[in-house]
Amino acid sequence: NNLLGTPPSPPPPDVEPIEPDTRGVTSIRQLMDKHRQNPACNTCHRKIDPLGLALENFDHVGVWRDRYSKSLPIDATGQLPDGSDIAGVDDIKHYLMDRPAQFTRCLTEKMLVYALGRELSFVDRDDIDRISQAMPPQQYGLRELIQQIVASEAFQTK
Question: How far is CA 58 from CA 1, 45, 64, 88, in A?
Answer without folding.
Answer: 18, 20, 5, 10
